[in-house]
Specification:
- InterPro entries: ALIX_V_dom.
- This is ALIX V-shaped domain-containing protein.
- The protein has 202 residues and is an all-alpha fold.
- The protein folds into two domains: 81 residues; 83 residues.
- Helix 1 packs antiparallel against helix 7 and helix 3 packs antiparallel against helix 5.
- The radius of gyration is 39 Å and the shape is rod-shaped.
Length: 202
């Protein structure tokens, strides 16, 4: 009778401990703590693959960004020159006062073509201005992207620091260490209880 009660008591205790262990393990799994390495420096963290590809492309063409800026400057100078030439042509056509010439089919064709070219030029200037603004807005990002990989990593990651050395990381590490300590204590308690019950032959 005593042996049966003792076995029942042991079984009941072990079942309750197993249930609590499962609850704790399920909770820890939901936190995905296995994906966190608190002792891994931030500079060792892997950058996204797409960022690495773009960085490699920029580093393969180190003159790409300066060349782009140079071409934009040349386009800007050409646009100014085109402005002057178109204004000059418009002024020359306006200076013609002869009704016969102004009513001539050739004159009208030239006037129409000049308007078409002027309209096309204005659209091109607008596009060029928008492109220059976009590049100016992202110029710093493009310069960072063109940095050597090690420098890019430092620039993005910031100062080298281990998560465990931050206040939050240290607190999380203490909690995990305490959890592990409690697991060991519980296992020791179970082992001791089992041994005591097994050796209890009253």
């Amino acid at each position: 009778m005593y042996s049966e009660e003792k076995a029942k008591y042991k079984r009941d205790v072990l079942e309750r401990i197993e249930l609590k262990d499962k609850e704790l393990n399920d909770y820890l799994l939901s936190l995905q703590l296995d994906e966190i390495n608190l002792d891994k420096s931030v500079d060792e963290l892997k950058l996204p693959e797409m960022l690495l590809e773009r960085s490699a492309a920029f580093n393969a063409q180190p003159d790409a960004f300066p060349d782009l800026l140079d071409k934009l400057q040349r386009v800007g100078r050409c646009a100014i020159e085109a402005d002057h030439k178109l204004d000059d042509l418009h002024n020359r056509l306006k200076a013609i006062e002869s009704p016969d010439l102004r009513s001539d089919a050739g004159f009208k064709a030239i006037e129409k073509e000049l308007e078409r070219i002027s309209d096309h030029h204005m659209k091109a200037r607008t596009n060029n201005t928008q492109l220059q603004r976009a590049i100016a807005a992202h110029s710093e990002n493009l310069r960072v992207l063109a940095m050597p990989l090690s420098e890019l990593n430092r620039r993005i990651s910031g100062p080298v620091v281990k998560p465990s050395e931050t206040a939050e990381g240290a607190q999380l590490k203490r909690m995990l260490d305490k959890t592990e300590e409690m697991r060991k204590q519980r296992k020791h308690l179970i082992d001791t209880l089992s041994q005591d019950l097994d050796h209890d032959d009253i």
